[in-house]
Design goal:
Elements: H1 12-34, H2 40-61, H3 65-68, H4 70-81
């Protein structure tokens, strides 16, 4: 079974919103699955798979924290100032 992959252009804030919504949905489905909801576990696994994909996309589009803040950011700014 092959799935077609579609590309969608979204902003960083929209990607964050999607990830947050999927996390909320994951929590809801987890509760339903623990209560014995029919099909909730299967749906939970699907949502977690999509959330992992969205999270990896979100990480690849945002600058790495170590490069933009803290000691590394300070050192980089000092190098640029000289």
């Amino acid at each position: 079974m092959t799935e077609t992959i579609n590309k969608l252009e979204v902003s960083s804030s929209e990607l964050d919103l999607i990830a947050n919504a999927l996390e909320t949905q994951s929590k809801i489905l987890c509760m339903q699955a623990s209560a014995g909801g029919h099909g909730a576990l299967d749906r939970l696994n699907e949502v977690k798979r999509v959330l992992a994909t969205v999270s990896s996309q979100r990480e690849s589009t945002s600058p790495r924290r170590t490069e933009t803040s803290g000691l590394w950011g300070l050192m980089r700014s000092m190098r640029q100032a000289t």
